[in-house]
Design a protein that fits this description.
homodimer, alpha+beta, DNA-binding
Chain lengths: 115, 115
DNA sequence: CCGCATCCGAGTTGATACTG
DNA sequence: CAGTATCAACTCGGATGCGG
């Protein structure tokens, strides 16, 4: 599938950069986190769970995740429209990564409430 | 001179966002990765290891990491100047997070040679 | 010389309104 | 409901300059 690669020629100097090229977007990890926890979510559900992200950004990040084969986008041709997002198999391999991040975040929040 | 100071007061909707508020910067995870692996690095050493980051961005990301108490900045008042960066104790708690990311990146790179 | 602050152009993100 | 369009605001990259 030779698709248009905007970031073609990108070579990674370390494995961290390779991962960030896939999930380094501003809201990608958060999107993945919610999809991991809830399995399948509609567009509007994600928007409610990530209120800081505007509709444009959310759409953009979702499309990029879809292009990278991390999530699935299923559109139901009904009225009113219905679009569901879910993890692909490759997306589920990120569970441990997101889980580590989530775990550290919990510890961080537990020890930084007396600011 | 507008400085970012409201990061600590940010309300997080999920633990992932809390973590990203600390290491979500464009090169922060990469910086931490190198510091985890090499222990202590000079400014110019980091620049060589992360060539995509400009000097300005590298300085900015390092200052933010320092403000968040994740890294230590030690300046030697000598000629020529010498600045060393190393992880703080809090910074070392991110080892497993960075390690997960690094691990996934290795797997990703190994299995993505399609064209 | 090394570390890093500053100015400006370019790309990215945000807020609001609009369409199918 | 899901997504697009437009413009304003912010961020990033590159070049330059400066202090030690």
């Amino acid at each position: 599938m030779a698709k248009k690669m905007d970031k073609a020629k990108k070579q990674f100097h370390c494995p961290v950069e390779a991962t960030l090229s896939q999930i380094g977007g501003k809201y990608k990890m958060t999107i993945l986190y919610h999809l991991i926890h809830d399995g399948t979510l509609r567009y509007h559900e994600l928007q409610k769970k990530i209120p800081q992200a505007t509709a444009k950004m959310l759409t953009q990040q979702l499309r990029e995740l879809e292009s990278d084969g991390l999530i699935n986008r299923k559109v139901y041709p009904v009225v009113p429209p219905k679009t569901e997002y879910s993890l692909t198999e490759r997306g589920t391999t990120l569970t441990e990564v997101i889980d580590s991040i989530c775990n550290w975040g919990c510890t961080y929040m537990a020890g930084t409430f007396e600011e």
